[in-house]
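re: that complex we talked abt at group meeting.

here r the seqs, copy pasted straight from the sheet so there may be weird spacing, ignore it
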Amino acid sequence: DAGITQSPRHKVTETGTPVTLRCHQTENHRYMYWYRQDPGHGLRLIHYSYGVKDTDKGEVSDGYSVSRSKTEDFLLTLESATSSQTSVYFCAISGVSGNTDTQYFGPGTRLTVL
Amino acid sequence: AQKVTQAQTEISVVEKEDVTLDCVYETRDTTYYLFWYKQPPSGELVFLIRRNSFDEQNEISGRYSWNFQKSTSSFNFTITASQVVDSAVYFCALSENNQGGKLIFGQGTELSVKP
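got the structure back, here u go
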């Protein structure tokens, strides 16, 4: 299994508070992704990174920001959490030989915004 | 625009039955990649298979097999002699070339295998 961890695994927060989720990998992979999973929608891409300090938006990026200052860490920040951001968040990595390689997923973070 | 459709929201079978999960995709690219992932009740996402658009050979791995047909834009997944441990949500996904590896997921099919 790919070495991917996510922290925290569960979080309950209140509307309007900032939240940061962390994805950490030990595989030295170039590409990292953040997805959210909601019933009826499968997984949808929020942001992705193709290298240190190189990031781009995905399908549902509004209300989220990301940062990648080291190869191994990719942070997802909700500047001011809303109830619509209650979801399960998955981080993924890829990139042994290209950006269309298989993505391997972390264990997920369940976020509840009250 | 790219899209993945898994029309079967839920499927219920009895153990040892064969079951096919359907996946239909839309893309304008000639180079693309298709994937299947399994999400068991524990919640993690497990990679099952990756197939590129130039390889239409069907693949078999134990009780699992995949049928890729470009003519119908389908990439169906069959489980032979299903087992209770196959109970999970299965996702089909599409990645287009030169798109940063972004995966477009279908909505998922929840498979329940009853003893």
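couple things i noticed - The radius of gyration of chain A is 13 Å. Residues 65 and 77 of chain A are 5 Å apart (CA to CA).
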